[in-house]
Amino acid sequence: MFVSIDQEQYQIIEEPYYKEVHDEISLFEAAYAARLPMMVKGPTGCGKSRFIEYMAWRLQRPLISVACNEDMTASDLVGRFLLDKDGTKWQDGPLTTAARMGAICYLDEVVEARQDTTVVIHPLTDHRRTLPLDKKGELLHAHPDFLLVISYNPGYQSSMKDLKQSTKQRFGALDFSYPDRDLEIEIVAHESGVSTEMAGKLVSIAERSRNLKGHGLDEGLSTRMLIYAGSLIEKGIEPLAACSVALVRPITDDPDMRDALDAAVTTFF
Ligand code: ADP
């Protein structure tokens, strides 16, 4: 198979570490086979991005990921004319590159992007599979292997910042949440290098915090945060200090909530 240099830089060579939580691997494979655009839903730090990396590796497709933010415009995704010494030159944006190349394009936290940005993805997500490059006067037909994937955190959304139904209804969706206790312990131990006993304590702290969701916390401690705490412990930091730095301080600015979480930490360490 011919692989261009461009394509090579987006190819995932080594198998990413990913533990299946339910049956998301076979569901995503079927979705890819049907070229059904997919939405991965769930709280931050629960494994959505890792899953997409793993699937790109498994399906042997290049992966182009874009972290969306509120300043992002449609041109940032699609491309723009740039000035160089010979005049102006068109530069494809990441979405266009992915559609040309037949990559999986992963738009992380797409709801953060401005509305005009979400509209440009529409024609790529239905039978047309096209991307109009208006400024360039080109109608790009997506490569047959191209797939669009977006991530979406329903917990954060206010009515001001929600995906429109006209966008949502163009995607299949997989729900993600924190892995079950035993699996999460295994993941935290593997990723941070701490023992399963230590990882078990970190997961227990997270479970307590997750019960506080909606009672002063917008979101509980994520798997990612537990891995950060474990990594500090693995570097020789005392567990209490590691939990303060990696778990409690980042997740809340409220002094009462901070004290409540600190107390949860001290029951385990
Ligand atoms: P999200 O994209 O949901 O914000 P990530 O995919 O970045 O979160 O997950 C955070 C970290 O948690 C990953 O880097 C990975 O180390 C770990 N992780 C979470 N779930 C899993 C899983 N099922 N298998 C392997 N690692 C996982």
Give the gist of this structure:
It contains twelve helices and nine strands. It has helices at 5-10, 24-33, 48-59, 74-78, 94-101, 115-121, 165-168, 181-192, 196-211, 223-234, 239-251, 255-268, and strands at residues 38-41, 63-67, 79-84, 87-92, 104-108, 130-133, 138-141, 147-152, 172-175. 37% of the residues are buried.
The largest beta-sheet arranges its strands as 2-5-8-1-9
> What is the terminal separation in angstroms?
54 Å
Q: What does the radius of gyration come to?
A: 21 Å
What share of the residues lie within helices? 40-55%
Structural class: alpha/beta
Helical run tally = 12
Report the strand count.
9
Q: What is the string of SSEs from the N terminus onward?
A: HHEHEHEEHEHEEEHEHHHHH
* Low-confidence residue ranges: none
Bound molecules: adenosine-5'-diphosphate
Mean pLDDT across all residues, rounded?
Answer: 93
Oligomer: single chain
Find the CATH topology of the largest domain: Rossmann fold
Anisotropy-based shape: elongated
CATH architecture of the largest domain: 3-Layer(aba) Sandwich
**Approximately what portion of the residues adopt beta-strand conformation?**
15-25%
What is the name of the CATH class of the largest domain? Alpha Beta
Count of folded domains: 2
Describe this structure in words.
With 269 residues, this protein is of the alpha/beta class. It folds into two domains: 8-175, P-loop containing nucleotide triphosphate hydrolases (Rossmann fold), CATH 3.40.50; 181-268. It is built from twelve helices and nine strands. The strands form three sheets. It has a five-stranded parallel β-sheet, sandwiched between helices. The N and C termini lie far apart (54 Å). The model has no long low-confidence stretch (mean pLDDT 93). Residues 17-19, 21, 44-50, 179, 187, 191, 223-224, 227 line the site of adenosine-5'-diphosphate.
